[in-house]
Write a structure and sequence with these properties.
With about 90 residues, this protein is of the alpha+beta class. It contains two helices and six strands. It has a four-stranded antiparallel beta sheet with strand order 2-1-5-6. A two-stranded antiparallel sheet has the order 3-4. Strand 3 and strand 4 form a beta hairpin. The longest helix is centred in the middle third of the chain and has 8 residues. The two termini are about 20 Å apart.
């Protein structure tokens, strides 16, 4: 569950996130993405076949990092496993 401070940062307009996935070699792979918070879930859109999508199909572990562009040492890091759906991707 996100704290009030985390929600405030995640909901701040114009923020970007990085999503870090695991390459087949075990190396981390990072991508800058748009995201949206839906309660205590972060929604991230990608295109099937892209590197992050292929990595997440093979290994659903990821980390998402959002930092405050005005105060870069203030950030939220979310670690977990993804659940994928094809619904709502284009809208996001």
């Amino acid at each position: 569950m996100f704290t009030d401070a985390a929600k405030a940062l995640l909901d701040k307009p114009g923020q970007f996130a990085t999503i870090d996935t695991v390459e087949p070699s075990g190396q981390p792979q990072c991508s800058v993405v748009w995201y949206e918070r839906d309660g205590d879930v972060l929604l991230v859109s990608t295109v099937e076949g892209r590197r992050k999508h292929r990595n997440l199909v093979r290994d659903p572990r990821c980390t998402v990092l959002v930092y405050d562009r005005d105060k870069p040492y203030s950030y939220v890091e979310v670690r977990g496993h993804v659940e994928m759906t094809q619904e709502g991707g284009r809208e996001l």
